[in-house]
Amino acid sequence: MTKVERQNSDEGIRRYEAFLEIDPDNPLLWIILGDLYHETGRTVEGLACFEKALSKDPDNPVARARVGNVMITQHRFAEAERLYRSFLGAEAPDPAVLHNYGMTLLFQRRPGEALEAFRRAEEEGIDGIQSLAYTTYALHQCGETGPAFSRYRNRLPSPLRIS
Fold first, then answer.
1. What is the rounded CA–CA span in Å between residue 38 and residue 48?
2. From CA 59, how far away is CA 2, in angstroms rounded?
3. What whole-number distance in Å separates Cα of residue 150 and Cα of residue 75?
4. I need a labelling partner for 115 at 20 to 30 A (CA). Which of 24, 74, 103, 142 fits?
5. Residue numbers of the chain with a pLDDT score lower than 50
6. Phi and psi at residue 113, in whole multiples of 5°?
7. Closest CA relative to residue 38, chosen from 51, 25, 26, 27
8. Which long-range contacts (CB under 8 A, 24 or more apart) does 46-55 make?
């Protein structure tokens, strides 16, 4: 993080702390403040903000996912796995939660289970370069190198194609 980025983050933290003095029951403000803390490496403060957001809105999917994100950052993979698993009881699970759940499994060297979670996340609509990267890595870790390369070939923009 550059000095300018750090100054902007510090200014944002001060701004959202002031907003929360006016509206302390707003979970979105707690989430944004938590994101700012997390981005600056202040994971303990970020986690406290996300948990505060959950105390205001226990079903908030963004706050729930952010708690797990901090746990992943802290390499608390088993805890994050349990947290994400607790969110998966929904009929149509949140694709980001499924993706992050897969990450916790992958980081615990369980690529087969991770691959299943990544595929479910894609079925639920998640798409993007991170999804491609982690799903492909899980395929490779499962010994499915051919399908892994095929995914890259089919999904990367043409100038980046693997030949």
1. 10
2. 35
3. 30
4. 74
5. 4
6. -65, -40
7. 51
8. 46/70, 47/71, 53/27, 53/28, 54/27
